[in-house]
Amino acid sequence: MSKGIFITMEGPDGSGKSTQIDLLREYLEKEGYDVLITREPGGTRISEAIREVILNKEYTEMSPVTEMLLYASARAQLINEVVGPALESGKAVISDRFVDSSLVYQGIARGLGVENVYNINLQAIGKYMPDVTFLLDLPADIGIARKKDQKELDRMESESLQFHRDVAEGYRSLAERFPDRIEKIDATLPIDRICDIIKVRINELLAK
């Protein structure tokens, strides 16, 4: 393939992103793509080190601005070291979260402002905006309940239920703001049904 495609999966904690990423990878590989899976924050040695700081439950004093800049730093390294080169070589890149997470978590839920957070992140992402973003929309109380059943919660997951409600609503507002890029999907639907919806949008993208 001469041109790579950049796909991001977004949604509140517990929305089922990992499951859909695995299913999408299988589908794209069948379509002939060399697929790269990554995550945010993380995906490189430096970015994973930053992830440990961001999600450490002991760092309760972390300011929203510090949090925003740490996410942007991890993202800059991921783009420079992994995502950019992969796309330039024609791969399909699927990222578990990307800049939309910062717009929602820090811009909306932390109150820093979507435009402010986006402008900070421009230096991190450069020209690499996703071709399509799948938003798995889920009520906050359901998502956090799922997470509590799976594991011990990290610093971000341990935030108040109101914070997670703000995140969920923030994602919905972002989907309304960028309808051409963000595909909002009801995450309470059966897994196979969600996968089918994603495949339809991917086929439209590949046909262009």
Keywords:
single chain, 208 residues, alpha/beta, five-stranded parallel beta sheet, 57% helix
Describe the structure.
This protein is of the alpha/beta class and 208 residues long. The chain contains eight helices and five strands; from the N terminus they run E-H-E-H-H-E-H-H-E-H-H-E-H. The protein has helices at residues 17-30, 45-55, 64-88, 99-109, 114-125, 140-150, 161-177, 191-207, and strands at 5-10, 35-39, 92-96, 132-137, 182-186. Strands 2-3-1-4-5 form a five-stranded parallel sheet, with helices on both faces. Helix 4 (99-109) crosses helix 7. The radius of gyration is 16 Å and the shape is globular. The protein starts with a strand and ends with a helix. The mean pLDDT is 95.
- The radius of gyration computed from the alpha-carbon positions, rounded to a whole number of angstroms, is 16 Å
Mean pLDDT: 95
- Counting DSSP H or I runs of 4 or more residues, the number of helices is 8
Summing up helix and strand content along with how strands pair, one would put the structural category as alpha/beta
Q: Roughly how much helix do the residues carry, as a percent range?
A: 55-70%
Distance between the termini: 14 Å
How much beta, percentage-wise? 5-15%
**Element-by-element helix/strand order:** EHEHHEHHEHHEH
